[in-house]
TrEMBL record:
Coiled coil feature spans: none
Entry keywords, A to Z: Amino-acid biosynthesis, Cytoplasm, Lyase, Metal-binding, Methionine biosynthesis, Zinc
SMART domains: Aldolase_II
Active site location: E151 (proton donor/acceptor)
GO molecular function terms listed in the Swiss-Prot or TrEMBL record: methylthioribulose 1-phosphate dehydratase activity; zinc ion binding
HAMAP family: Salvage_MtnB_euk
Chain's role: Catalyzes the dehydration of methylthioribulose-1-phosphate (MTRu-1-P) into 2,3-diketo-5-methylthiopentyl-1-phosphate (DK-MTP-1-P).
Top-level taxon of the source organism: Eukaryota
Cellular localisation: Cytoplasm
Species assigned in the record: Naganishia liquefaciens
Sequence ranges assigned to domain Class II aldolase/adducin N-terminal in this UniProt record: 24-234
InterPro entries: Aldolase_II/adducin_N, Aldolase_II/adducin_N_sf, MethylthioRu-1-P_deHdtase_MtnB, Salvage_MtnB_euk
Name of the protein described by the UniProt record: Methylthioribulose-1-phosphate dehydratase
EC class: lyase
């Protein structure tokens, strides 16, 4: 479709019979994530980068009831990289009054620009939250989750978009501190991604997790594998079992 037609009819960006069109896919995935308990109470979300366009779920909408007409569409090439409080360029804004783009927008852009991701998922999984509570920060304020010798590690990619890890690899995911406003997590997430370039996700204490991938399939697969690992890690911790090899101090 030409740029002219998009300007004449922005809704053409979200109209498609293809179930894997980003506007349709975001709605389906949000329903699936709702059933998993990942995006209850309007929290959490997903963004998909499709060519030069970024499709974004709205903020404050029941995720299991999202419709393609609720989707925001932004050009990937923004006048300025999205930051907390910054003005964004839009190709399509929903006509329904009261809708705002996801507060996660600048955090999604971290994944798009720093890892060349094509999709980023944010969940409020209880497994992720509980795991962060069991991993306090050290004296320098740093915290990570590390686990090895688990089959599901093989579903995680180096940096979120590289080759998959092996059973013998140790998975390490940074944990950053929460902030009252979601957008203010942007800088902390960026610093964590710089410090841990091999990590395919960032955990947020008392909040949830951000996971990305080179495609929506990769992002979804890794979100599912990580949630499994978060759950088993919590159970292992509470049972007094080491998470890495045989090191009881891990």
């Amino acid at each position: 479709m030409s740029v002219t037609n998009i300007h004449e009819d922005p809704d053409a960006l979200i109209r498609s019979d293809d179930p894997e069109h980003p506007a349709n896919l975001i709605c389906e995935l949000c329903r699936d994530f709702y059933k998993l308990g990942w995006v209850t109470g309007t929290g959490g979300g997903i963004s998909i980068r499709h060519g030069d366009h970024v499709y974004l779920a709205p903020s404050g909408v029941q995720k299991e009831r999202i419709h393609p007409s609720h989707i925001f569409v932004l050009p990937f090439q923004q006048t300025a990289v999205p930051k907390p409080g910054s003005k964004r360029d839009f190709l399509r804004i929903p006509s329904q009054k009261g809708l705002k783009e996801s507060a996660c927008t600048p955090l999604f852009w971290n994944a798009f620009t720093m890892r060349d991701a094509r999709a980023c998922i944010h969940t409020h999984s209880q497994h992720a939250v509980m795991l962060t509570l069991l991993h306090p920060a050290d004296a320098q304020g740093n915290a990570t989750f590390r686990i090895s010798h688990q089959e599901m590690i093989k579903g995680i990619r180096i940096g979120g978009t590289g080759k998959t890890l092996s059973y013998l690899d140790t998975l390490e995911i940074p944990i950053i501190e929460n902030t009252p406003d979601e957008e203010d997590l942007t800088e902390g997430m960026s610093r964590a991604m710089e410090r841990y370039p091999d990590a395919g996700a960032v955990l947020v204490r008392r909040h949830g997790v951000y996971v990305w991938g080179g495609s929506w399939e990769q992002a979804k697969t890794q979100a599912e594998c990580l949630d499994y690992l978060f759950e088993i890690a919590v159970k292992m911790r509470l049972a007094g079992m080491p998470l890495v090899g045989g090191d009881a101090a891990a």
